Amino acid sequence: MYVCNCNAITERDVAAAIKDGASHWRDVHAHFKNTPCCGMCENEITETIENEKF
Question: Rounded to two decimals, what is the model's pTM?
């Protein structure tokens, strides 16, 4: 499922970015050489990052 429609980032992509060290929602975008556009994905990506920490 897409988490970021603007940059076509999926849940699986977010997990891969976190595994590679992303610790902020903007890091997830940077991992794929994108920049956030509308910000609608911020909450979901941030929540996923927080859940992966624990």
Answer: 0.91
Residues 6+ apart with CB under 8 A from 2: 8, 9, 10
Query: Which amino acid is residue 16, in one-letter code?
Result: A
Cα–Cα distance measured from residue 7 to residue 32, given in angstroms and rounded to the nearest whole number: 9
Query: 43 with 35: CB under 8 angstroms?
Result: no
**Which carries the bigger pLDDT value, residue 40 or residue 52?**
40
14/38 Cα distance (integer angstroms): 17
Radius of gyration of the chain (CA): 10
φ, ψ at 3 (rounded to 5°): -100, -40
